[in-house]
Design a protein that fits this description.
- By secondary structure, the protein is of the alpha/beta class.
- It has two domains: 2-77, Immunoglobulin-like (Sandwich); 100-482, TIM Barrel.
- The protein is built from eleven helices and 23 strands.
- The strands form six sheets. The protein has an eight-stranded parallel β-barrel with strand order 9-10-14-17-18-19-20-21. Strands 5-2-1-8 form a four-stranded mixed sheet, with no helix packed on it.
- A hairpin with a 6-residue loop joins β22 (447-449) and β23.
- α5 (213-229) packs across α7 (263-284) and α10 packs parallel to α11 (461-468).
- The radius of gyration is 23 Å and the shape is globular.
- It starts with a strand and ends in a 15-residue tail after the last helix.
């Protein structure tokens, strides 16, 4: 037997099959937590389908991993629910007149610049307690279980999100799993649960742990909390509309670490967290968008001598597409980082390794249409629709000289024009707001920094190009059209 599709109507889980038979079902928290099933059941497929109650295991069956067998032989096909049924909320996805975005550090300045998109980092371990802490806890019930969120962290996030929302900025979260982020350290007892079991020295950020049932539950509750709190009617805490799962996962050893594994192993593991984010968030709001994060390496890879550490984005996407077609479709989108070939120099139009063919080594702003054309292919579509693209992190370097700063500004203008020529790109979120002393020697900001510190000092030429890029001049021509 083959399971063709698993869907729900919010009351039952329906399994569509290619034949009729008595079927044994085992349901698990994830494909990596197979020691003890959430439940087992026997059902009879008739007329090409069978159903189970959505709460069969005392929890929401939409988020489980299913294994089916007939007479002891494993069934092929779908393992996950791919149509989540009716959501709690069904408001439209917000639209804005501009694609201009920024990784914001100075909110008032961003508002004055007319920013319409922002990507904000949020860290799993920063938001949660294992046990409630008096005076610093917000209890939140998800799927029948109470979780404890850190009130101080949540309220700090509320303030950022609310201020940007009130200024008309569309916010997407970047979901991270780090022991320390900003001013908040993950409690050690929680970190031991949520860090990936393969996380090793050399990795800056851990992949999400889908190998431990408690870690899976914390992750799901966090996604539910973020979606629920920031899509409420009237937006009392602000509005956030999407989630980028991890950072530059094709260079995962450094930015979404699960140790040294093949690209197939890596994508299989990562897809579990990507899928759960999409399932949980869209169960609350139908418009929530989930993104995979990719850097500019396409068929090439960062440190290609280590094929079990760094991969090409194309191979990651091809494996993700294969898993969706065999185990259950996922409504993923792409958060791409098309930095120039050499991060030290902004003139992307001279990138030799960014070519127009599908097997290009890199995708930068020079050949950005290659990514779009890849996603236009029929096997890449989701329910017949093209996947969306956001450019969630990229910037252009300057070298503390007037000439290099002018070149930086020109690069931004030319890049913005490329973005405007691809309708599936929803936002171009520039990194960074200001030069950062810790940015590996790069000066990517709109603002110069003060000597020997990261305190913003004075705006660079790119600041003014950025401010005016989506405005019309006295001739009625958009500034970006001049590049």
């Amino acid at each position: 037997m083959k399971i063709l599709r698993i869907v729900t109507d919010n009351h039952q889980i329906r399994f569509d099959t290619d034949t009729d038979a008595s079927v044994q079902i085992a349901a698990y928290r994830s494909a990596f937590c197979l020691d003890t099933p959430v439940f087992t059941a026997t059902a009879t497929a008739q007329n090409g389908s069978f159903t189970l109650p959505i709460d069969k295991g005392g929890c929401d069956g939409r988020f489980l991993y299913y294994r089916a067998s007939v007479d002891g032989a494993d069934c092929e096909g779908a393992c996950y629910v791919e149509d989540m049924g009716a959501s709690l909320r069904d408001m439209p996805y917000p639209v804005t007149e501009s694609k201009k975005g920024l990784q914001v550090t100075m909110v008032h300045d961003a508002i004055n610049l007319g920013v319409k998109h922002a990507a904000l980092n949020v860290n799993l371990g920063s938001f949660l307690w294992v046990e409630p802490v008096e005076g610093d806890t917000i209890p939140y019930t998800f799927d029948g279980e109470e979780f404890y969120f850190r009130k101080s962290v949540v309220e700090d996030n509320d303030a950022r999100v609310r201020e940007l929302t009130e200024a008309g900025v569309i916010i997407t979260y970047i979901l991270l799993n780090s022991h320390t982020w900003g001013w908040v350290q993950t409690p050690d007892d929680l970190w031991e649960i949520i860090k990936h079991p393969g996380f090793c020295e050399g990795g800056r950020i851990s992949a999400f742990n889908m190998h431990n049932e408690r870690a899976v539950r914390y992750y799901m509750a966090w996604i539910a909390f973020l979606t629920d709190r920031y899509t409420m009617k009237g937006a009392p805490y602000g509005r956030a509309v999407g989630h980028i799962v991890g950072n530059e996962v094709n260079s995962g050893f450094e930015w979404c670490n699960m140790g040294e594994v093949s690209v197939e192993q890596y994508v299989y593991d990562y897809t579990a967290s990507l899928r759960l984010c999409w399932q949980v968030s869209t169960s609350i709001w139908s418009g929530a968008r989930t993104y995979i994060s990719l850097d500019h390496f396409w068929t090439g890879a960062n440190f290609s001598a280590n094929p079990n550490r760094f991969y090409g984005s194309k191979f990651v996407l091809e494996e993700l597409i294969r898993l969706g077609s065999t185990e259950g479709e996922i409504g993923w989108n792409v958060a791409h980082h098309p930095y120039p070939e050499n991060l030290n120099f902004p003139d992307f139009w001279n990138d030799a390794s960014a070519t127009d063919d599908e097997d290009t080594y890199r995708i930068t702003f020079k050949n950005l249409e290659v990514l779009a054309q890849f996603l236009y292919k029929e096997e890449c579509l989701f329910k017949g629709q093209r996947r969306r693209i956001i450019l969630s992190e990229q910037g252009f370097n300057s070298h503390n000289t007037a000439t290099s700063e002018v070149l930086q500004a020109m690069a931004y203008g030319k890049a913005y024009r490329k973005v405007m020529e691809i309708p599936e790109i929803d936002s171009f979120i520039l990194h960074a707001h200001a030069d950062n002393k810790g940015e590996f020697g790069l000066n990517l900001g709109l603002w110069r920094r003060r000597p020997e510190s990261s305190v913003p000092d004075t705006p660079k030429p790119i600041y003014y190009v950025f401010r005016d890029i989506d405005k019309k001049d006295e001739k009625g021509v958009y500034h970006w059209q001049r590049y």
